[in-house]
């Protein structure tokens, strides 16, 4: 099972001028590392290298990423508000830019990733984008040390970008950011193959929330966002084989980056994983499905104009009255 994550966060502020068309590179080598030292689940340097490689492996269009990005941006239609300056943070940068199509009335878009190769690939792809009227700024930076001035943004989008963050609540507090996905078939096949060939299990997937929707809502609340909204969608992608699925994950930069993993995956174990996956989940036409369960999370920065909960005890209708009216 693989876990992906992505977020959408909105804020209210007065319009301010921002930047030009450029690539900025922010080094985090001299930054106090106490934020990282508290939690070391993922190897951030390894993940950066994986995304550098994926920048040149990924397809110019990916139906899975495009569908997820499109559904994420659809949530902007629910808001009667414009977002002139937006930050797209890691993950599926190109899919977000391809899918904007005027949603959110974004005038300036900051594309940021810890991978310099991913940022460069995104800039190269901008020439063929349908969103040429959007001013673009390209930034190489780490979401755990966000190099953006506080209250300078109207919107932050992270589509499949935060699930490799060691301290997700902390990063969300700094980022103002919505999303997670799970491939349960792959986790089952990998576990069975390791038990059969290696006699034990080495961690090869990210830790997952046991109660995903509830935990996602708690993350938003811990990060001080208001009016939290969480919903779930499932996407099923069919592949010719399990090996094709693994190559797709590799091209998205979604290979393992856990600190505690066994770095050597034996060839026999890898082939056994693919064989078990095919035997357990192959369909009649010979294809194998991968089910991505995606959690979309939306939160707002606190503002006096937002609706407030009524004081306790102020209700004029009880749940018992509602039950009597509409039945059980």
From TrEMBL:
GO biological process: methylation; mitochondrial respiratory chain complex I assembly
SUPFAM superfamilies linked to this entry: S-adenosyl-L-methionine-dependent methyltransferases
GO cellular component: mitochondrion
Pfam families, per database record: Methyltransf_11
Xref: InterPro entries: Malonyl-ACP_OMT (IPR050602), Methyltransf_11 (IPR013216), SAM-dependent_MTases_sf (IPR029063)
Domain Methyltransferase type: 95-173
UniProt key word Protease: no
Domain of life, per lineage: Eukaryota
GO molecular function annotations of the record: S-adenosylmethionine-dependent methyltransferase activity
Keyword field: Methyltransferase, Transferase
Keyword hit for Methyltransferase: yes
PANTHER family: ARGININE-HYDROXYLASE NDUFAF5, MITOCHONDRIAL
UniProt-recorded name of the protein: Methyltransferase type 11 domain-containing protein
Organism: Lupinus angustifolius
């Amino acid at each position: 099972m693989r876990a992906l994550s992505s977020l959408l966060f909105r804020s209210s502020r007065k319009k301010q001028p921002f930047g030009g068309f450029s690539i900025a590179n922010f080094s985090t080598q001299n930054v106090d590392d106490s934020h990282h030292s508290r939690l070391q689940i993922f190897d951030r340097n390894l993940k950066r290298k994986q995304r550098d490689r994926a920048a040149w492996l990924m397809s110019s269009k990916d139906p899975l990423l495009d569908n997820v990005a499109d559904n994420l941006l659809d949530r902007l239609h629910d808001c009667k508000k414009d977002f002139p300056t937006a930050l797209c943070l890691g993950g599926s940068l190109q899919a977000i830019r391809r899918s904007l199509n005027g949603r959110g009335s974004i005038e300036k878009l900051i594309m940021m990733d810890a991978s310099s190769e991913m940022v460069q690939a995104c800039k190269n792809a901008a020439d063929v984008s349908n969103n040429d009227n959007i001013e673009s700024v390209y930034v190489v930076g780490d979401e755990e040390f966000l190099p953006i001035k506080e209250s300078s943004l109207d919107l932050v989008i992270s589509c499949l970008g935060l699930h490799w963050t060691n301290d997700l609540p902390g990063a969300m507090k700094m980022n103002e950011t919505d999303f997670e996905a799970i491939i349960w078939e792959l986790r089952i096949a990998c576990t069975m193959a390791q038990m059969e060939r290696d006699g034990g299990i080495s961690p090869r997937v990210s830790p997952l929330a046991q109660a995903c929707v509830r935990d996602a809502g708690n993350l938003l609340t811990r990060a001080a966002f208001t009016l939290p909204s969480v919903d779930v969608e499932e996407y099923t992608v069919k592949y010719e084989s399990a090996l094709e699925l693994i190559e797709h994950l590799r091209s998205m930069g979604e290979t393992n980056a856990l600190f505690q993993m066994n770095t050597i995956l034996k060839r026999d174990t890898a082939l056994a994983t693919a064989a078990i996956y095919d035997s357990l989940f192959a369909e009649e036409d010979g294809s194998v499905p991968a089910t991505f369960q995606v959690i979309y999370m939306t939160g707002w920065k606190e503002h006096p104009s937002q609706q407030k909960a009524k004081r306790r005890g102020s209700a004029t209708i009880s749940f018992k009255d509602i039950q009597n009216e509409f039945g059980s």
